[in-house]
């Protein structure tokens, strides 16, 4: 164990942490899930599915009645990961979801209440079998379909410095209620001596609280980037038993691109195990069900 010297003990006895400005620490959680869209009118077709995120309608100021990411402040003696797990459980009753730190946001004036630093986590789970916390007159949560597209891009190269400017359009929609947000966020990415620096600028859009539009764009881009390099990531968005078509569609929704089926199945082959189970209760020809190959995940 580390042993303090008498000089160090004397220094700490005189040290007063209240002499320094300190931020409040909070967590925000971008919860992704793949859920079915609307009513299915053709039993021969697979249900339409969409990538969704969970938003909370704020019941208190600031940003009362605006939609925001779930989250909250760290409690005394609680680290930020414990805060994220607690908040996730309180909103969804999910205890063991995939959680990963996606970014830290501490820009000046991001919160009108003061200096608040958000540790943002990305959560992934199959939302079909999990129910949200019961609503009340002062609380509301909904799954919003999320779509992110590029509207324009610009690249400027100056000697050893490169600046990439990308204008993204983020659309968040809830079909049943008709609520829809269209937000434009510009990503400024600089490479100085090959080192990357990224900032986000709010361009337009209303209805979202704080800087949560920026956070959603950043986290979704992180998810897309990781899914291309780590095929294990998307498995948290499918049930324990799944079809290969369902798994491929999950990747397509994350990446927002169509995949070539033979190529996809070749890449994913080591990560799945065929079972003796089939899809039940479907009008089309029953498809074989697969599960994770645990050895490939933890080798």
**First CA to last CA: what distance?**
33 Å
**Order of SSEs:** HEEEEHEEEEEEHHHEEH
Please mark out the parts with pLDDT under 50 across 5 or more consecutive residues, or reply none: 39-44
Which word captures the global form? globular
Strand coverage percent: 35-45%
**Structural class per helix/strand content?**
alpha+beta
Number of strands: 12
Helical content (DSSP H or I, runs of 4+): 10-25%
User: Which radius of gyration do the C-alpha atoms yield?
Assistant: 22 Å
Tell me about this structure.
The chain has 299 residues and is of the alpha+beta class. The chain has six helices and twelve strands. The protein has helices at 6-14, 80-92, 212-229, 244-255, 261-268, 294-297, and strands at residues 24-36, 49-57, 67-68, 71-73, 98-105, 116-124, 140-158, 161-174, 179-192, 195-204, 272-278, 288-292.
